[in-house]
Amino acid sequence: MIDRKQFNDVFEYFDKEVIVEIIDIFVSEYDDRFRKLRANVTDKDFKNLQFNAHSLKGVIANFMDPVTIEQSKRLDEMAKKEIVAGLEKALEDLELNSALLLKELKIIKKEFI
Hints:
With 113 residues, this protein is mainly alpha-helical. Helices cover 83% and strands 0% of the residues. The protein has helices at 4-11, 16-43, 46-61, 66-81, 87-112.
């Protein structure tokens, strides 16, 4: 879940349109990001997995969702260390919580429109 106080603190000086645009970018890139991550995990392509996981981690960090942030860090670290054991579960957990984050962001977006 998004920490709404932290979210509001981070975005308090942003125009509503900018916040909506940031959310829209995440929404529009969501499916492709996870398609790539799933392919990277399946192929054990640690180089691209690390790149894609690290990129997602940076994006998710903007939204103040501590659970999803931690899960994205975990996947990034596993890719960096080329850890196979638990890799699919780590992605599954991240994808599940990212889907919840996506739903929350869509609700927040409505508040700004």
